[in-house]
Amino acid sequence: MMRRGPLQAGEKVQLTDRKGKMITVQLVPGERTQTEHGYILHDDLIGASEGTVVVTVSGALDAAAGADADGVGDTSTDAMSAAEAHALNPRKPWKGTRRIGGWSWCVMRPRLADYVLSMPRGAQIMYPKDIATVLQLGDIRPGARVLESGGGSGAMGINLLEAVGETGSLTTIELRSEFAHICEANATLFFGYRPQWWDLRVGDFDSVAATLPEHSFDRIVLDMLDPWNRLEQAHRVIEPGGVLVAYVTTTTQLSRLAEAVRESGQWTQPEVQETLERTWKVEGLSVRPNHQMIAHTGFLFITRAMADGVQALHKKERATKDVYTDVDELDSLELRDISDRKVRKVIRDLDRQVKEQEAQAQQ
Description:
Elements lengths: L11 E5 L5 E5 L5 E4 L2 E4 L10 E4 L4 H6 L16 H7 L4 H5 L6 E5 L3 H7 L9 H10 L7 E5 L5 H10 L4 E6 L2 H15 L6 E5 L2 H5 L7 E6 L8 H7 E11 L2 H14 L6 E3 L3 E7 L2 E9 L4 E6 L35 H23 L1
Parallel strand pairs: 7-8, 7-10, 8-9, 10-11
Antiparallel strand pairs: 1-2, 1-6, 3-4, 5-6, 11-15, 12-15, 13-14
């Protein structure tokens, strides 16, 4: 649900300072958030509009008089001078100056990508760059029936719930109950309620999928360690022509999944890609890539389901191009066929170059 109007208690907001530092907080009446430059009072944000600026207040009295009985301390807005900070802590005066108020923060409601990156997590999340590609190449749209395995912290699930909407459905299978709890809580906080079109189940993929009707899903998204072991049940519950997207992080996983898909004959030739993200600095004439980038996070593996009993069409490798024999079995590898004419030409060229080198050495 798109939220509009003044900021409300219970909402999450994103605060950004002039240096680009971001913090995400949930608004609670009477609460405050500590920063390096004083406190942000939540009451200053509740009822305010997005796009406004809030100024921190001083935490000077916390250092001078100690915390109050509730452990929070005074919220005096009096600024602490450098001399006062030095008097409180002469050896490390900068610690006191960090408590000075007057630091400005811009307040906005977080975008979905911001929320995903800042939300509490148990398992590692998929990055927005990968999630966006899954939604596009997986053709996940309103009304789709989607099966997700590996709920984790809910990053992918929240995006899937948004994409399919109330006219679609999402079934999430999560092996660990504690991760399912985190996943459910993050989604509930984002939407403001638990989505009614979401079926969250705890258990291993094969056991849970076995209880689902045949061909009951349009799309499947797998984020797990061994997706190649789940292809049989995945094919049973997906519609013919349905899209399966798997997210794996290592080349070993990628290779095993690709070979399992080809061997089964139930899936089309897979597409594999990774997405790299690089931001840029644009200030006046200083326009260049930033020094840091989000490079490899994982591989996206996309394939489609064949109809029952129909063998998939896969590209056949040439006989002279052996890409399957293990390197430990060198005796069984076929030599690449090279013509005698080509061999003679290479030998002539090398003999000529050797003679030229010898001639130069004698001079």
